[in-house]
Protein backbone atom coordinates (compact mmCIF):
# COMPACT_ATOMS: atom_id res chain seq x y z
CA UNK A 1 0.00 0.00 0.00
CA UNK A 2 1.09 3.57 -0.42
CA UNK A 3 0.00 6.68 1.38
CA UNK A 4 -0.44 10.39 1.08
CA UNK A 5 2.04 11.80 3.60
CA UNK A 6 3.72 15.05 4.49
CA UNK A 7 6.86 15.95 2.60
CA UNK A 8 10.00 15.32 4.56
CA UNK A 9 8.99 11.89 5.84
CA UNK A 10 10.73 10.43 2.80
CA UNK A 11 14.03 11.59 4.36
CA UNK A 12 13.60 9.36 7.45
CA UNK A 13 16.09 6.47 7.30
CA UNK A 14 14.60 3.12 6.18
CA UNK A 15 11.03 4.44 6.42
CA UNK A 16 11.78 7.02 3.72
CA UNK A 17 13.21 4.39 1.39
CA UNK A 18 10.03 2.31 1.80
CA UNK A 19 7.96 5.41 1.05
CA UNK A 20 9.84 6.05 -2.19
CA UNK A 21 9.58 2.40 -3.27
CA UNK A 22 5.82 2.41 -2.68
CA UNK A 23 5.37 5.60 -4.71
CA UNK A 24 4.00 7.67 -1.84
CA UNK A 25 2.28 10.95 -2.64
CA UNK A 26 4.11 13.61 -0.65
CA UNK A 27 2.67 17.01 0.11
CA UNK A 28 4.20 20.12 1.65
CA UNK A 29 1.22 21.83 3.29
CA UNK A 30 2.96 25.20 3.28
CA UNK A 31 3.50 25.09 -0.50
CA UNK A 32 0.47 25.74 -2.72
CA UNK A 33 2.11 24.10 -5.75
CA UNK A 34 2.90 20.98 -3.71
CA UNK A 35 -0.73 20.77 -2.56
CA UNK A 36 -1.96 21.11 -6.16
CA UNK A 37 0.53 18.47 -7.33
CA UNK A 38 -0.64 16.10 -4.57
CA UNK A 39 -4.28 16.57 -5.60
CA UNK A 40 -3.38 15.78 -9.20
CA UNK A 41 -1.42 12.67 -8.17
CA UNK A 42 -4.27 11.49 -5.93
CA UNK A 43 -6.70 11.84 -8.84
CA UNK A 44 -4.35 10.00 -11.23
CA UNK A 45 -3.80 7.15 -8.76
CA UNK A 46 -7.51 6.79 -8.05
CA UNK A 47 -8.28 6.57 -11.75
CA UNK A 48 -5.70 3.83 -12.40
CA UNK A 49 -7.40 0.46 -12.70
CA UNK A 50 -4.14 -1.51 -12.33
CA UNK A 51 -2.29 0.61 -9.79
CA UNK A 52 0.95 -0.79 -8.35
CA UNK A 53 -0.57 -0.49 -4.88
CA UNK A 54 -3.73 0.96 -3.36
CA UNK A 55 -3.50 4.58 -2.29
CA UNK A 56 -4.40 5.26 1.32
CA UNK A 57 -5.52 8.77 2.21
CA UNK A 58 -6.08 9.91 5.78
CA UNK A 59 -8.77 12.49 4.99
CA UNK A 60 -8.42 14.39 8.25
CA UNK A 61 -4.94 15.42 7.09
CA UNK A 62 -3.53 14.88 10.58
CA UNK A 63 -3.98 12.73 13.66
CA UNK A 64 -6.20 13.37 16.67
CA UNK A 65 -6.50 11.72 20.05
CA UNK A 66 -8.67 9.02 18.45
CA UNK A 67 -11.86 9.99 20.28
CA UNK A 68 -13.64 11.88 17.49
CA UNK A 69 -13.56 12.65 13.75
CA UNK A 70 -12.56 16.12 12.62
CA UNK A 71 -13.55 17.59 9.22
CA UNK A 72 -12.14 15.78 6.18
CA UNK A 73 -10.07 17.44 3.48
CA UNK A 74 -11.66 17.14 0.04
CA UNK A 75 -8.70 16.07 -2.14
CA UNK A 76 -9.56 12.36 -2.12
CA UNK A 77 -13.19 13.13 -2.89
CA UNK A 78 -12.64 15.57 -5.78
CA UNK A 79 -12.40 12.84 -8.47
CA UNK A 80 -15.94 11.75 -7.54
CA UNK A 81 -14.91 8.08 -7.51
CA UNK A 82 -15.98 5.48 -4.92
CA UNK A 83 -13.86 5.23 -1.78
CA UNK A 84 -13.29 2.38 0.68
CA UNK A 85 -13.69 3.83 4.21
CA UNK A 86 -11.51 2.20 6.85
CA UNK A 87 -11.03 3.21 10.46
CA UNK A 88 -8.46 2.07 12.98
CA UNK A 89 -8.82 1.53 16.72
CA UNK A 90 -5.57 1.35 18.70
CA UNK A 91 -5.49 -0.94 21.71
CA UNK A 92 -2.53 0.51 23.55
CA UNK A 93 -2.72 0.94 27.27
CA UNK A 94 -0.08 3.54 28.14
CA UNK A 95 0.64 5.55 25.01
CA UNK A 96 -1.54 6.32 22.02
CA UNK A 97 0.73 6.78 18.97
CA UNK A 98 -1.74 8.74 16.90
CA UNK A 99 -1.46 12.00 18.83
CA UNK A 100 1.59 13.80 17.50
CA UNK A 101 2.41 16.66 19.85
CA UNK A 102 5.70 15.07 20.85
CA UNK A 103 9.03 15.44 19.06
CA UNK A 104 9.58 12.51 16.67
CA UNK A 105 12.30 10.84 18.78
CA UNK A 106 10.17 10.89 21.92
CA UNK A 107 7.18 9.64 19.95
CA UNK A 108 9.18 6.68 18.59
CA UNK A 109 10.67 5.90 22.02
CA UNK A 110 7.24 5.79 23.67
CA UNK A 111 5.77 3.71 20.85
CA UNK A 112 8.59 1.17 21.15
CA UNK A 113 7.96 0.98 24.90
CA UNK A 114 4.92 -1.18 24.17
CA UNK A 115 6.01 -4.77 23.86
CA UNK A 116 2.58 -5.87 22.68
CA UNK A 117 -0.04 -3.75 20.96
CA UNK A 118 -2.87 -4.38 18.60
CA UNK A 119 -4.72 -2.26 16.12
CA UNK A 120 -8.21 -3.19 14.99
CA UNK A 121 -8.85 -2.32 11.36
CA UNK A 122 -12.51 -1.92 10.43
CA UNK A 123 -13.20 -2.04 6.70
CA UNK A 124 -16.52 -0.53 5.73
CA UNK A 125 -18.39 -1.23 2.49
CA UNK A 126 -17.31 0.92 -0.47
CA UNK A 127 -18.98 4.31 -0.47
CA UNK A 128 -20.34 5.14 -3.91
CA UNK A 129 -21.07 8.85 -4.31
CA UNK A 130 -24.37 10.19 -5.60
CA UNK A 131 -24.41 12.62 -8.54
CA UNK A 132 -24.86 15.44 -6.02
CA UNK A 133 -21.78 14.28 -4.07
CA UNK A 134 -19.74 13.95 -7.28
CA UNK A 135 -20.53 17.60 -8.02
CA UNK A 136 -19.72 18.74 -4.47
CA UNK A 137 -16.55 17.18 -2.95
CA UNK A 138 -17.19 18.90 0.40
CA UNK A 139 -20.62 17.24 0.64
CA UNK A 140 -19.12 13.90 -0.40
CA UNK A 141 -16.36 14.18 2.23
CA UNK A 142 -18.85 15.15 4.95
CA UNK A 143 -21.21 12.29 4.12
CA UNK A 144 -18.37 9.75 4.25
CA UNK A 145 -17.28 11.28 7.56
CA UNK A 146 -20.82 10.91 8.94
CA UNK A 147 -20.98 7.27 7.77
CA UNK A 148 -17.64 6.56 9.46
CA UNK A 149 -18.82 8.28 12.65
CA UNK A 150 -21.94 6.15 12.74
CA UNK A 151 -20.02 2.92 12.09
CA UNK A 152 -17.19 3.65 14.56
CA UNK A 153 -19.15 5.32 17.33
CA UNK A 154 -16.72 8.26 17.23
CA UNK A 155 -18.56 11.59 17.42
CA UNK A 156 -17.99 14.38 14.91
CA UNK A 157 -16.09 17.38 16.15
CA UNK A 158 -15.44 20.68 14.45
CA UNK A 159 -11.73 21.08 15.10
CA UNK A 160 -9.60 22.51 12.36
CA UNK A 161 -6.24 21.01 11.47
CA UNK A 162 -4.59 24.41 11.71
CA UNK A 163 -5.60 24.55 15.39
CA UNK A 164 -3.48 21.49 16.08
CA UNK A 165 -0.48 22.95 14.27
CA UNK A 166 -0.95 26.22 16.18
CA UNK A 167 -1.07 24.22 19.44
CA UNK A 168 2.24 22.58 18.50
CA UNK A 169 3.73 26.03 17.81
CA UNK A 170 2.56 27.19 21.25
CA UNK A 171 4.19 24.14 22.86
CA UNK A 172 7.47 25.08 21.15
CA UNK A 173 7.15 28.71 22.26
CA UNK A 174 6.61 29.99 18.71
CA UNK A 175 3.13 31.31 19.51
CA UNK A 176 1.67 32.74 22.71
CA UNK A 177 -1.28 31.10 24.44
CA UNK A 178 -3.29 34.29 23.82
CA UNK A 179 -2.60 34.01 20.07
CA UNK A 180 -3.65 30.36 20.16
CA UNK A 181 -6.86 31.19 22.03
CA UNK A 182 -7.67 33.97 19.56
CA UNK A 183 -7.19 31.59 16.61
CA UNK A 184 -9.45 28.92 18.09
CA UNK A 185 -12.16 31.37 19.10
CA UNK A 186 -12.47 32.77 15.55
CA UNK A 187 -15.69 31.64 13.89
CA UNK A 188 -14.02 30.56 10.64
CA UNK A 189 -14.76 27.42 8.67
Key features of this structure:
3 domains, 189 residues, 12% strand, globular, single chain, three-stranded parallel sheet
Write the layout of secondary structure elements.
Elements: E1 2-6, H1 15-21, E2 25-27, H2 32-47, E3 55-56, E4 86-91, H3 104-112, E5 118-123, H4 131-135, H5 137-152, H6 161-171, H7 177-185
Parallel strand pairs: 1-2, 1-3
Antiparallel strand pairs: 4-5
Helix pairs in contact: 6-7
Shape: globular
Percent range for helical residues? 25-40%
How would you write the strand order of the largest sheet?
Answer: 2-1-3
Oligomeric state of shown chains = single chain
Q: How many H/I helices? A: 7
Could you characterize what this model shows?
By secondary structure, this protein is of the alpha/beta class. The protein folds into three domains: 1-57, no CATH class; 61-158, no CATH class; 159-189, no CATH class. The chain is 39% helix and 12% strand. It has helices at residues 15-21, 32-47, 104-112, 131-135, 137-152, 161-171, 177-185; strands at 2-6, 25-27, 55-56, 86-91, 118-123. A three-stranded parallel β-sheet has the order 2-1-3, covered by helices on one side. Strands 4-5 form a two-stranded antiparallel ribbon. Helix 6 (161-171) runs antiparallel to helix 7 (177-185). The longest helix has 16 residues, at 32-47. The model has no long low-confidence stretch (mean pLDDT 81).
Amino acid sequence: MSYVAKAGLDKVPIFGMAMRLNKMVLVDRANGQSRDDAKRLIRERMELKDAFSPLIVFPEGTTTNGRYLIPFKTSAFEPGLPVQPVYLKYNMRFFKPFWTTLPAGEHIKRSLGHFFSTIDMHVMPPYIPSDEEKADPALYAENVRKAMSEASGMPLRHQLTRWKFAYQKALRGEMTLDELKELVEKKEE
